[in-house]
Write a structure and sequence with these properties.
The chain is an alpha/beta fold and about 210 residues long. It has one domain: Rossmann fold. It is about 45% helix and about 15% strand. The protein contains eight helices and eight strands; from the N terminus they run ββαααβαβαβαβαβαβ. The longest helix is centred in the N-terminal third of the chain and has 21 residues. About 30% of the residues are buried.
């Protein structure tokens, strides 16, 4: 049995340019490359939504409202999916059947995750998006409990150093995989991962999910 959790934005959902454009509009910025650099640096820092941080109901409601507005703005700017990776994972799921167990975990809104899963006919036991009490560490622990496996049996695929730094203390570091087509790219990912754990091309996932 292979157990794998995927991040969504930057792994399956190509929303980077739209995210930058929305942020520029909010902050009245004009330099795309500088803004992209600044946001990449921010995603190198430690996670925003962490295990020991708690929000009031009012704060959580405001965060969810802002995320809903941001999603609408991203869609207006234009987003797409990393179709080659989605199709590669779908083929692996068809071949492995019950021997491949997958979950989707993201700070994006749940509706984005479920729409993606339906579009590509991908079967995830969990499509966990942002909610009022959220940290990726806690959600990974919950998925492991639901699957009745220890954390060291999980793979996690992400495009950001933020996720890697949050999850390294609780997971087997050799099972943290970075994808080079998302926010941070190969050079950033090499700050935290060996090159052998960086997916350069969608097909590289087959090194870890073997048929």
């Amino acid at each position: 049995m292979i157990n794998i959790i995927f991040d969504f934005e930057g792994v399956f959902w190509d929303s980077m340019e739209a995210t930058v454009r929305v942020y520029m509009a909010q902050k009245e910025l004009t330099d795309y490359e500088q803004t992209l650099h600044d946001l990449r640096e921010d995603r190198w820092s430690y996670a925003t939504y962490v295990k020991n941080r708690h929000y009031t109901l009012e704060q959580s409601t405001e965060i969810l409202a802002n995320k809903a507005l941001e999603l609408d703005q991203k869609v207006q700017h234009g987003t797409t999916y990393f179709i080659n990776f989605a199709e590669t994972v779908k083929l692996l799921q068809l071949k492995l059947g019950p021997n491949l167990r997958m979950a989707l975990l993201s700070t994006a809104l749940p509706v984005s995750l479920t729409e993606f899963a339906a579009k590509f006919n991908l079967h995830f036991t969990h499509c966990t998006g942002f909610h009022t009490k959220f940290s990726k560490e806690e959600e990974v622990e919950k998925i492991a409990r639901d699957w009745n496996i220890p954390l060291n049996e999980l793979y996690f695929v992400t495009d950001t150093l933020r996720d890697i730094r949050e999850l390294k203390p609780v997971m087997d570091p050799s099972k943290l995989l970075g994808c080079a087509w998302g926010w941070h790219g190969t050079e950033y990912l090499k700050r935290e991962l060996p090159e052998s754990q960086i997916l350069i091309h969608p097909e590289d996932i087959k090194k870890f999910i073997k048929v």
